[in-house]
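Postdoc handover notes: sequence design on the structure in folder B. Input tokens:
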């Protein structure tokens, strides 16, 4: 009976130790910005100074980014806009004419 009790304690301790050493699966390590194009024409999206691609009118593009402050602009425009993201967050950015 002592061996059986010891075996159960050893198994429970091993499982507990294994679970505590696992990484937290809820940590994303990135955030997502969804850029929605409502300009009436296709645009080139530039995020943090790098071209992220084109977005057709009425469509959107998802960009995975790190947590923190970021910028975006539309290709050919001199106007830069800022936004910030928290880890695992998804935000929606509407791009439209004023």
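Designed sequence:
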């Amino acid at each position: 009976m002592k061996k059986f009790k010891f075996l159960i304690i050893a198994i429970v301790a091993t499982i507990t130790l294994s679970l505590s050493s696992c990484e937290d699966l809820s940590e994303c390590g990135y955030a997502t910005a969804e850029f929605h194009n409502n300009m009436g024409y296709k645009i080139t999206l530039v995020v943090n100074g790098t071209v992220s691609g084109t977005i057709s009118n009425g469509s959107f593009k998802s960009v995975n980014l790190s947590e923190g402050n970021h910028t975006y602009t539309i290709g050919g425009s001199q106007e830069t806009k800022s936004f910030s993201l928290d880890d695992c967050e998804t935000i929606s950015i509407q791009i439209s004419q004023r």
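Context for whoever picks this up: The longest strand covers residues 31-38. Don't rerun without checking with the PI first.
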